[in-house]
User: Fold this.
Amino acid sequence: MIVSASRRTDIPALYPQWLANRIEAGYALSVNPFNPNMTRRVDLRPSPIGGSPKNSLETGENAKLEILADTGKPLTKPTINGKPRRSFENEEGKKNDRRHTKKYFEDHFSPLTTSIEGYPGVFNKRPGDMEALVLWTRNPGPILQYLPKWEERGIRSYFLVTLTGYPEVLEPGTPKVTEAVDTIGRLAAVVGRERIVWRYDPIIACRELRMDVGYHRENFSRLAKLVEPFLSKVIVSTYDSYKKSDKRLAVAGIAHDKNEARAAAVEIAEKCAKMGLAITSCCEDLGDAGIKPGGCIDPRHLDSLWNLGLGSVTDKGQRSGCLCAPSVDIGSYDTCTHGCLYCYATGSVKNAATKFTAHDPDKEFLA
Assistant:
């Protein structure tokens, strides 16, 4: 089992103590974004090389006893300020993927046949140890202190680090480029460059901020020269339209130019070819730009690192075109405070700030 932390928020940058606590405890709870009463128990103990044990489903009394033995007390039903969580539009997808993705969650999150006092919705459908921990972040700095211990324990961490260097109006809460590059270099000193992937994502083009092809040619080239010594490849995609992020951009007076963004992708691919930097796209056909499709949680790359036996398997719970390996996400929507206008995972910056303030790092679930 691969654990994703997280497509929904920036756990390494914003919730490092919670992640460290959960790894120490050996598990975390992942809440179904469609139904907050349905929660999956995710094993965070590293598995032996060669994959997770294929043991039988844990249901009813056995699952109840295992959970209570690990926690030492009954679980409490997750709420925000006393109210049930509101589900997001869908899991890392768009409205036209909702039915498909919702079915995925129904298949993977189910209530116990024997309820736990105060919390009837915990169930681990496919128990097994953690084969890899995939960390999505703008800033891995806050978890660097934990990495040596995780390495000793055999936790196979893999980093997807987003760095765009865009104007502050687009991403007000992200680290400055110099700080980000320094952190990536320190991360590489611990885990090596093959376990770090750069995400220049999304590519946004707009006249209002003079972010045209020329801007991206210069901006990407500048960043690539700085980070190339510390990572293995780059993943790109152009901005995808979402109702809430579209509204934020419109309020800021920014209109994304899809054609200009795709033209910028051509320039980026040419720069990568000159540098010898591997490049793939995320959930988008950029073949006309000379960019091959790929997965962020790339099963073949993970196999090359640890021989996990993933092959070319893909995650059916993601949006159409996603080539990522199957994973379980332990994050929560509306918890990232970076404030990026184009972000699909944050519906309300105000709600995210409220949840961040109310966050308890000792809880079994993030928020």
Q: What stands out?
A: The mean pLDDT is 84. The chain has eleven helices and ten strands. The longest strand covers residues 196-203.
